[in-house]
Amino acid sequence: MDSSSTSRNDRPATLADVAARSGVATSTASRALSNPGRVNAVTRERIERAARELDYVPNSQARALTSGRTRAIAVLVSDVTNPFYFGIIRGTQHQLKAAGYTQLLVDTEESDELEDGMLHKLRRSFDGAILAASRLTDRRLTALAAEVPLVAINRQTRGVASVFIDTPSAIEQAVGHLASLGHTRIAYAAGPDTSWPNAGRWRAMLRAGDRYGIDVQRVGPFAPRKYAGAAAADAILHSGVTACVAFNDLLAIGMLARFRERGVDVPGDISIVGCDDIFGADFCNPPLTTLTAPIEQAGRTAVSMLLSRLDDGLTPVARHATTLPTHLTVRDSTGPAPGDDAGRTAPTKGNPTP
């Protein structure tokens, strides 16, 4: 009696037994038995023959493995403490719960290496992934989309299903709003260089600057967090502009605090616009003019797109791209440009940090 027969007498055959007898990886055996079209005919027949010889019958757990369905979806965010992601996480969780899926939340800490590594480390734990503001390069993201069913939020990359929040259009609205208030020198306080939306927002600033005949400058990059607002505010004051568009609301809120420390009046001395309209943006002093985005809707839409692809049997249908509109919400942090001396270094109090 051979070893495999002995194994069957001792315990039911497992998928690993089938893989070992066939001389293939367990993942290959899984694909052959659950999605035969994804494995070449010769290999598939060898695996199927091994399964018959071993009397392999999947139990409920094994069926989940061989079908590739864990009923879990990984949701990766760049910074779980950033309120922008609260809406996305809420949207994805509600939609996944309704569909009978579990959400695996991963904080990638603004790191492309951590993002890539966690996707591979956890690969057997989820059916697909939603990447919110991915820090991966276009090339790496495209390659990953060929390996893993995924949807990217706030990213537009060829060959990758995506939900794009159209903040560039609202950036142009913001510049038009500032131009209407008489501002002719505007700065963009940039976010991380690895952020795809950051590049898109800067391009939108340049387009709008050309349209309205406005001098547009870029300062940064800065971390997309409140603490970075102090350095961003100091850089803005040094630049001599009369208005600023910040990469996100957290950065803008940190800038408001720094301006207040330095005795700079907002919007009397300088106007500021944020991005995302996170919870608390309207509680600032002054309330923040910002770009309002349908953040929770983006999470729900991404889940619907991903589950639709999974239900189609992982076929490459679907390089779908959905764009969600945004708009400018005007509050008290923007106002008319100051007089001709606006290019001066703003007044300070205390002992400012240069």
What does this structure look like?
- The structure is a single chain.
- With 354 residues, the protein is α/β, with parallel strands linked by helices.
- The chain has three domains: 3-66, Orthogonal Bundle (434 Repressor (Amino-terminal Domain)), CATH 1.10.260.40; 72-165 and 295-325, Response regulator (Rossmann fold); 167-293 and 329-343, Response regulator (Rossmann fold, 3-Layer(aba) Sandwich), CATH 3.40.50.
- 44% of the residues lie in helices and 16% in strands.
- It has 13 helices and twelve strands.
- The protein has helices at residues 3-10, 15-22, 26-34, 41-53, 60-67, 83-98, 112-121, 138-147, 167-180, 196-212, 229-239, 249-261, 295-311; strands at residues 72-77, 102-107, 128-132, 150-153, 162-165, 185-189, 215-219, 243-246, 271-276, 289-292, 321-324, 327-329.
- It has a six-stranded parallel beta sheet, sandwiched between helices.
- Helix 12 links the parallel strand 8 (243-246) and strand 9.
- Helix 2 (15-22) crosses helix 4 (41-53).
- The longest helix is centred in the middle third of the chain and has 17 residues, at 196-212.
- The protein is elongated and about 85 Å long.
- It starts with a helix and ends in a 25-residue tail after the last strand.
- The relative contact order is 0.12.
- The model is unreliable at 1-8, 59-66, 314-318 and 340-354 (pLDDT under 50).
Rg value: 26 Å
Side by side, the strands of the main sheet go: 2-1-3-4-5-11
The CATH C-level class name of the largest domain: Alpha Beta
Low-pLDDT runs = 1-8, 59-66, 314-318, 340-354
